Amino acid sequence: PEHWDVKRLKFIAKAFIGITYSPAELVDDPNKGILVLRSVNIQQGKLSLKDNVYVDKNVSEPYKLKLGDILICSRNGSKDLVGKNICIDENAEGNTFGAFMSVIRSENWRYLSFYFNSQLFSSQSGLYATTTINQLTLNTLNNLFVALPPSIDEQLEIVDFLNNKLSFIDKLIKTNQDFINSVMEYRTSLISDAVTGKIDVRDYAERVSEPGVT
């Protein structure tokens, strides 16, 4: 739209690279350290806390995650994983993030959280693919172009629209996934029953040839 602005990310947000830590700073007890979010903590666009690392380290305030921060995998051995991201909510607020991660912090975070899951972001972030290391540098992030409605109200209208539409799509995905899971469970059970003799398959060929038998 003509009234939208096109700005580089550095003019509307701040980008940070995460903290480094030594093996000596790792702790097993969550109560004795701070959670360091890494690439493995982002699974299918959601926060995953199944594989956690805690460090006993003083972390300065800018590197403590805040509500609305966009956490991005900025470096990884797999090119396909670079760029995956989540928007920080109350469950992750106050933790920190590792050196292979970056955070985007902006008052436009609600809108930007969708931008970072769009083709516009993925096509521009492909700039890192020209290097020998799979990474999104701060320079690349800062110079990304963002098409931005100048009005916060218009941004929020877009956010509300997407939230409603995506909620419906996610429900459809879950319904279909539940059906797929139940069919796969039946498949596994059927194999087990057949190979353990729980199903009498004698004369099966003759029986299935009868009308109405499946």
Helix content: 25-40%
User: Ranges with pLDDT <50 over ≥5 residues?
Assistant: none
How much strand? Answer: 15-25%
Tell me the major beta sheet: 4 strands, antiparallel
Descriptors:
214 residues; single chain; alpha+beta; four-stranded antiparallel sheet; 12 strands
Describe this structure in words.
The chain has 214 residues and is an alpha+beta fold. It has helices at 109-115, 119-125, 138-142, 152-195, 204-208, and strands at 5-8, 14-17, 26-27, 34-37, 42-43, 46-47, 53-55, 70-73, 85-87, 96-97, 101-105, 145-148. A hairpin with a 2-residue loop joins strand 5 and strand 6 (46-47). The longest helix has 44 residues, at 152-195.
Brief characterization of the structure:
This protein has 214 residues and is α+β, with helices and mostly antiparallel strands. The protein is 32% helix and 18% strand.
How is the topology of this model organized?
Elements: E1 5-8, E2 14-17, E3 26-27, E4 34-37, E5 42-43, E6 46-47, E7 53-55, E8 70-73, E9 85-87, E10 96-97, E11 101-105, H1 109-115, H2 119-125, H3 138-142, E12 145-148, H4 152-195, H5 204-208
Parallel strand pairs: 4-10
Antiparallel strand pairs: 1-12, 2-11, 3-7, 4-7, 5-6, 8-9, 8-11
